Amino acid sequence: MLEATSIQAQLAGARGDRLRVLVVGAGVAGTIVAQLLRREGLHPVLVERSAREADSGYMLALMPLVDPVLDTLGVPERYLADSVGLDRYRFRNPAGTTLGEYSLAGLFERFGDYRGISRGELLGVLGSAGGAVTYGTTVTALGRRPAAVAATLDDGAAPVEAEFDLVVAADGLHSPTRGLVLDPGRVATYDTGWGGWVAWAEPDQDVDLSEELWGVGVFVGTYPVKDRLGVIVAGPRSDTEAGTERFVAGVRRRSGSVGPRIGRALDAVARSPDAYYWSLTDCRSDTWSVGRVALLGDAAAGFLPTAGIGAAMAMESAWVLGSLLADATPDGVPRRPRSLRGGPAAQGGGRPGQLPPAGPPDVLPQQGPVRAAQHRGPVHPPGDGPAPHHQAAPGAAPRQVRRYDAPLRSTMAPVRYSAPGLARKTTTRATSSGVAARLSGLWARMASPAGPWRNGAAMSVSTKPGATVVT
Ligand SMILES: Cc1cc2nc3c(=O)[nH]c(=O)nc-3n(C[C@H](O)[C@H](O)[C@H](O)COP(=O)(O)OP(=O)(O)OC[C@H]3O[C@@H](n4cnc5c(N)ncnc54)[C@H](O)[C@@H]3O)c2cc1C
User: Fold this and answer.
1) What's the first-to-final CA gap in the chain, in angstroms?
2) In the structure, which protein residues have their CB atom closer than 6 angstroms to any atom of ligand 1?
3) What is the pLDDT of residue 130?
4) Ligand 1 center–CA 93 separation, angstroms
5) How is 207-263 classified by DSSP, letter by letter?
6) Hey, is 140 helix, strand or coil?
7) What is the helix, strand, coil percentage profile of the chain, to 5?
C-alpha cells in the first residue's frame, strides 16, 4: 500500500536522484509509472488530488494486455486474488429476452486473463510494494527553466515550487495539468450525449458473468468484482437528468421481465440518489508530450467507460513509459516520451501516421508560474471524477451511426514491443489486441442491421480502428 507522506519529505527524498520526476495523479497510470521508477532506485514525487486513498470506486474489467504490466510489477498473484475471472457474457433487450450468451473462456485461455476488479482494489494491487504519495495535493503552475521544469505544488497549506527533469501528467480525462501546457483546442472530445450512474449491488452466484441490457434510451451493465457487483445504468442526458428514481421507474415501465440480475442493478441505482454520475465522453490530446511534460493514460487519450479498455490502455502506456525512462538521463528526457511513437498497442504502435505528432521540444514560457490550474475540481469520488453533469444533451437523444475515426482507440496489429529500452519485457500474450478485435466483432454484429440493436439506441465503442460506433 502507498504511504501518505508530506510533500516536503517526498521532495527531500528525490533531491539526489539522477532523474527527478513528478507524477501528478495516483490513479492507475500514475501509480504504475511511479512504482516502475522506484524499482530503478528513483524517488518520483507522486501527488494525488484526492484527500485519501481511493475507496472501491467503480468496477473495471481488465483485458489481457495488463498481464505483462502486473508481471513486471511482481503482483500477478495479488491481482488474481483480488479479482474475478469474467468468463461469460450475456445480453438482453428490455423485453427481457436473452439475446445471446457467450463463453469467453476459450478466448481468454488462449490470450490471457479477462478479470473484474474494483478500482480501489486495483490501486491496492499496484501499490502493494509500498511507496510515498502526497494526498490532497496538486500542481497549480508549470514553468520552463534552462534544463528543467518548475512545478508549483499545492497541498492546501503552503505552495512549494520544485524543479523536475520530467513531469508526468497522469491526472485523468479532465487533466488539469494538461490544461497548464495545452490549449483546450488541442484536446478533442466526443460527447455521446449520454451519461450513467455507477453503483454497487450484492453479488450473485454468477461470479463469472457480465450481463448487459441494451434498449432504446437505456443501457444497464453489471460486472462482478470480488464480493460485489458493479452496476452502471445509463441513458441520454435529457432523460437521466430526471434523477435515479424517475429514470429507473421509466425504464421499468417500458420493460418486461429483465431478469433478477438486471432487476437488482436497477434497484441499486434507484435506491442511490447520490450514485456517482459519469458523463459518457472521451478525449484525445493532439500531442502527448510538451517538452518535459508527458501526458499519460486518460490525460492523453481517454476512452468511453463503455469501451471497457481505458484502464488497460493506461496501464500498458504507463508500463512502456516507465521502461523508456528506466535509463533516461535528464538531458534525454524530452525525447523519451516522444519515442512512445514506436510503442505499444495503447499508443497505436505499428500503425505509422496514426499517432499524434510529437510535441514541440518545449513550449512553456521561460518564467513560471505560467498559468493557474483551470480548476482544482471537487475532491472526488475515486477516479477522475468530473462534477456531476446533468445538462440536457444538445438536440435529441442520439441515434445516429457515425464513423469513429480516432485511431488511438486501439490497434488491431499484433503488439510488438520494440521501443528502445523495452527489450527486457516482451510478451507472448501481446496478441491481446486480437481479443479486442474479437470483442469488437461481437459488438459490431450486435449493432449490425441484423443485430439486436437495429431498432434501438445502443452505445459502445468498438476497439477496432475506424469501426462503427452506434450511439
Ligand atoms: C464507470 C467507469 C467504468 C470503466 N470501466 C472500465 C473497464 O471496464 N475497463 C477498463 O479498462 N477501463 C474502464 N474505465 C476507464 C478507466 O477507468 C480509465 O481509463 C482509467 O482509470 C484511466 O487511468 P488514469 O490513470 O489515466 O486515470 P485515473 O485512473 O482516472 O486517475 C487519475 C488520478 O488523478 C487524480 N487527479 C485528478 N486531477 C488531479 C490533479 N489536478 N492533481 C493531482 N491528482 C489529480 C484523480 O483523483 C485520480 O486519482 C471505466 C471508467 C469509468 C468511469
Assistant:
1) 39
2) 24-30, 47-50, 58, 60-62, 138, 170-172, 176-177, 198, 232, 278, 297-299, 303, 305, 308-312, 314, 380, 383-384
3) 97
4) 29
5) TTEEEEEEETTEEEEEEEETTEEEEEEEEEHHHHTT-HHHHHHHHHHH----HHHHH
6) strand
7) 30, 25, 45
pLDDT (tens digit per residue) in 140-159: 999 999 899 999 999 999 89
Q: Determine the residue type at 31.
A: T
Cell of 164: 523536475
Which residue of 171, 284, 285 sits with most ligand 1 atoms within 8 Å of its CB, as the best mutation to test the pocket?
171
For domain 88-112+190-280, which architecture applies?
2-Layer Sandwich (3.30)
Give residue limits of the domains in the chain: 3-63+123-189+283-347, 88-112+190-280, 401-470
* Residues 3-63+123-189+283-347, CATH architecture: 3-Layer(bba) Sandwich (3.50)
274 has pLDDT over 90: no
Return the number of other C-beta atoms located less than 10 Å from residue 241's C-beta: 17
- The Å distance, Cα 219 to ligand 1 centre, comes to 21
From the CA of 170, how far away is ligand 1's center (Å)?
9
Using alpha carbons only, give the angle 428, 429, 435 rounded to the nearest 5 degrees: 145
Same fold, 3-63+123-189+283-347 and 88-112+190-280: no
Q: What mean pLDDT is predicted for residues 386-394? A: 29
Q: Which atom of ligand 1 is nearest to the CA of 298?
A: 26
Instruction: Give the pTM.
Output: 0.79
User: Which ligand 1 atom lies nearest to the CA of residue 380?
Assistant: 47
- Reported confidence tier of residue 338, pLDDT bands at 50, 70, 90: low
> Would you say residue 373 has pLDDT above 60?
no
